[in-house]
Each structure stands twice: as C-alpha cells, then as structure tokens.
Amino acid sequence: MEPFYVLISTFLQVLLILTCSVDASPTGYRHIANIKRSAAELAESYDYVIIGGGQSGLVVADRLSEDGTKTVLVVEYGDIDNNKDILLPSTGAASLGRDFFNFSTAVNYHLNNKTFAIQAAAVVGGGSAVNGMLLDRGAAEDYDNWEKLGNPGWGFEDLLPYFRKSTTLTLPNKELQQEFGIVEDESAYGDGPIYASYPPWQWPGTKAQVNAWKELGVKSPAKASSGDAVGVFWAPSALDPRTWTRSYAKTAYHDRAAPRDNYDLLTKHEVLTIKFTNSSTHDPLPNNSTSTLRATSITFRNRGTREVSTVSANKEIILAAGTFHSPIILQRSGVGHFPLIDRAKIPRVLEVPGVGVNLQDHAYMTRQYDYNTNVSPNPDMLDRSSPKFNQTFYDWAQAEYTNHQRGPLTVATANTAAFLSLNTAVANTDTITSSTSRARSQISLPGTYTTSLRIGFNMQESTVLSSLSSPASAALAIPFTGKSSSPLIMLKPLSRGTVSLDRAAPFETPPLVDFRTFYHPVDLQLFIEIFKFSRKWFEAPAHRKLGPVETAMQKNAVSDAQIELLLREKVLPSSGDAVGTCAMMPFNRGGVVGPDLRVYETMGLSIVDASIIPLIPGAHLGATVYAVAEKAADLIKARA
C-alpha cells in the first residue's frame, strides 16, 4: 500500500535525478535483441505467452525461461523506464505522470460522491517499479484464511518457502540495530533476486513513535516476517544494498532473463483478447473439468500504429495483467458474466460469474498532526511543502546520497509500522463484528452477484469477522517515519467492488472500477473506532515529547457522527493494493481459478497476479505478490 501522501512527500527527491551517479539499470539495454518493439520481430508461437510484464509476469517469465528448451514471450502495455529516478528510494511520485495508467474510479456514493485516480502501473516491472518499496508480510492467519476458503496448499507455511525464494535479507549495522531496536528473523529469507534491506539511515523521531506504541501495551514481535505480524515492528525495503537503489521485478527478474535466447519481451502493446479452440487433446483437465476449451493464442495491438496481431502459445497463456486489467481481458474474450458480455456485444465463450467481482483494497486516510518539538533532523526538513523545510539539510542529504549512497535519501517510505488487531483498539470487538446482519451485508453487495457469488461472499464474511476478533491478525495499520502525519489504514474490508469493461466501447476505453468503499456496514464502524484509537498513540507520553498537535479539522471530529462526516470526506478508497477480481476459490463459490491457478473449465490458461488473491492480507502487497508468482511458476513448470 503506497498512499499518495507518502509518495508526494518524497517528490522533492526528483532534483536528485540529474546528479545521481547510479546507473539506471545494472544491465540497461545490453540485451536489446530480446526487447521487441513490433509484432514483426516475434516468432509465430512460443511455449508460454505471458500477458503483462509487471511484477508477477516478470517473476514467472524468468522462472519459466530457466529451462532453455522452453520459449517465453511477455507482452507488456508499458515500456522499460530507464530514467534514473525510478531507482531512487521512494520516488514513485516522480513517475506518476509517465508510468501509470490514466483513468479514474466510478463515483463512490459513500465517499461524498467523489471519483479517485486509479493507482495502476503501466511500466515494465509494474507496481514494484513505482511503489513505496516496503516488503512486509501479513500474519500467518491472513494466508491460512485463503486455504480455509477452499484452496489447499495456499496457507502460510506453503507460501513461506516462496517468500524465502524471492528475497535476500541485508540487516543494518549493529549500531543501528541496537539504537533503534531493529529485530528481524533471518531464517525467513533466502538468497532470492529481490534485495530486502534496511537502509543505513533512520529518522531519530521513530524511536519516540515506537516507544509510544509500547506504552499502549503493543508488543514488538521478533518474527514478524515468519507470520507473527501483529504489533509494532520493523520491515525491510526492496532496496539493493550495493547501490541503495530500488530492487524490483525488472532489475531482479527481467535483467536476469534478458540474456537468454528463449526469452522475448514485447513492450508498448495492448493485449485485446485470448482466443480459444475446442481441443481433442487427452491432457489432464484442470480442476476436474469436463471442458475441452483450450486457450491457444492472443490478439494484441501496437499502441502507436494500432496494428492488431496474433501470437500462439504451445503450452499455456499466462494472464498477469493485474487486478484491473486481467478481468477485462477475460471479459473481452467472452469469459465472464454473460449478461455483461452480451451487453457489450461480445460473443459468449465461457460463463464465469466471478470475473471482475470481489475487488478489495486498503482504504486509508492521513492522520494530520503537527509536531511542535520534533527532534532534529526529521523528514519535514526535506519536505519543500512544509514550513519546517531546511535548505541546508536538503543540500547535505542530496550530496550524501549522490556522492556516497548514504544518508536520509536511502530511506524509502517507511521501515516501521504498527499492525494492530482489532481487540487492541476496541475493548469489545463484538460491538463491531456483530453490528451487521446477513440481510444488511447481502444488500451491500453489487446487484450483479449471482447465487454462487453470494455463497462465496458469505464464507469470506464469516472468515473476515473471525479474524477481526482474533489477536493473531491485524485489522489496522499505521506506518510511520518520524514525520508528524501518518496514514491510518483499514486492512480487512468487507465491502466488495467491481471491475468491468465499458460495454459501449470495450476495446477502446479503460476498465470501469468501482471500489464501493463503506458499502458494507462493518467497514465504516470499524474506521470510526480505529480513528478514535489513533489519538491514544499521539497522546502517549513518549509521543508527547514531540509536541503533537492535531489539525483543526480532525481535532473537531469528536462524536461518531462528526468522525463519520470527516471520514466520508477524507478517506481514499485505495492504497494501491487492489486484489481479488479473478479470485482463487471453488467455482461454485464465485471462484475464477482453482489452487492450480488455471481458469475453471479451460485448458492452457492460468492467472498469476494479485487478482487471484481471495482475501486481502494485512500487509503491503509487494512481498506477497512475489511469493504468489514464485509459487505459480512452480505450479506451471510441474505440469509442463
């Protein structure tokens, strides 16, 4: 989750772009032959065709192309961004104009009828190229819940080997560990291509903020990365310790695959459809299916010339276009809820009602305080929009990073956060978890929900409500950096949104995204309670040493009714963590893929991105998506 406030607060680092001595890529365009710009450069067919060169797509492409006898093509909407600023820690704000899709949400009735910009990356590397780089993991219960929904082999212990496989840990020096109390479970990491590192700098104010949580009785788990992710703890960033630059899917996975003759990456092309044939093969059918529908090729369009081309897959088409685009590619291919497909005048292929529903994200707001007696130095001194901006300190920080790759500009958005269970914030969790009825929760669902989707949601609702009452699962998060304002994030929403094609122009317009924030009655009540609880943190003795003063608008929100009005105005529906629109669940409960990640009733078609996640974990998505993609690659290789 990378709230806009944390991205914008680092926009000041853009000036560093012109002077940064770090190369934009360890390999750059050294292997230019593998980067294709037109369909004419491609082979007629590949063993594997991957739709989307984002975070998950590049992981799977790298792993599949390790076998030199298998050919792999990745088709990506965006381009490789070789600008140096993309590698600077937490300069996602600098990329907002060039590396993101440009579309907005539907009007959100419960957020004062506003629309919001969508955070969806359009660049090689996907979200890993533009996010805030935090590599925390959810609690074990978050992933065990996936298994409870009917997905054997997808619990935390099943995913832990893939969390390890994807990452290599670098701890800070002993002095920094002791000064800030940084504790990490080294056994939770391996020797993977993504560097999970702690920067050589931390803001001194974080010590007071951590101590304030401890004064409230919040524990500091020693093994947060191994599933005990409830409490106040440190987490590494996706940071290459050799250069203190962003470690992401492009540098870690694509650059490793690029020298291989069996790997091609086609950029700046939009995938339109997946084509199917009726197959007479005797291959084992996925998910106990009786279908003979096989995905055999894709159509795609050059974003410049608009020329449409086709390429075939000998073994499998792998959908990795992300939570917003994977479902609309299926819908444009005739796979989805038939009433929607019919209205778009698209030929029917396969009815899968779960395509494009079950959308979840981490809604958040910024808790706005000022510090009257903050310690020096502090992040506000680098923020040109702050009255406490200090030009001398800014110049020093820039020189430290440019000349020595050290200092405060090695820090991404945050390495510290409180991930709190609901019973930490609320004395009696039943006041929230029992504040709904089955009838009210059913009314909160989109009108397009079929019986199977409602059955699936009922299972999800029961699972989430159980976790909200559990001390082993986080319900809210407050990341912090020593800055006076911090995001307040709801981790376990029950509202469910939708993603669908525009029936008027399904091949020309972006997806229609409706987060439906606060449609479920529990979500609003939960946010009211965590808003009230967050004040206790700022009022704790250790925190008071920094002189926190709540801004007027938020200070005046005292009663539940006043807080509700504030939330409807200030809450944003997305932290950039959207999941769930092609959920991994049983088909008769609204699922799109099974535990093998193959689309129900098809052969040769799988999905490997965040859209398959059935319930959003209480964490930023970066580490989880790497683990899911690593596991997906093993599943695909096992059936090759």
TrEMBL record:
Signal peptide boundaries: 1-24
InterPro entries xref list: FAD/NAD-bd_sf, GMC_OxRdtase, GMC_OxRdtase_N, GMC_OxRtase_C
GO molecular function: flavin adenine dinucleotide binding; oxidoreductase activity, acting on CH-OH group of donors
Residue ranges of domain Glucose-methanol-choline oxidoreductase N-terminal in the record: 322-336
UniProt: FAD binding residues: V123, V271
Keyword check for Signal: yes
PROSITE patterns (alphabetical): GMC_OXRED_2 (PS00624)
Cofactor: FAD
GO BP, one annotated term: secondary metabolite biosynthetic process
Keywords linked to the UniProt accession: FAD, Flavoprotein, Signal
Taxonomic superkingdom: Eukaryota
Family, per entry: Belongs to the GMC oxidoreductase family.
PANTHER family from the UniProt entry: DEHYDROGENASE XPTC-RELATED (PTHR11552:SF115), GLUCOSE-METHANOL-CHOLINE GMC OXIDOREDUCTASE (PTHR11552)
Protein name: GMC oxidoreductase
Species of the source: Patellaria atrata CBS 101060
Lineage per the UniProt record: Eukaryota, Fungi, Dikarya, Ascomycota, Pezizomycotina
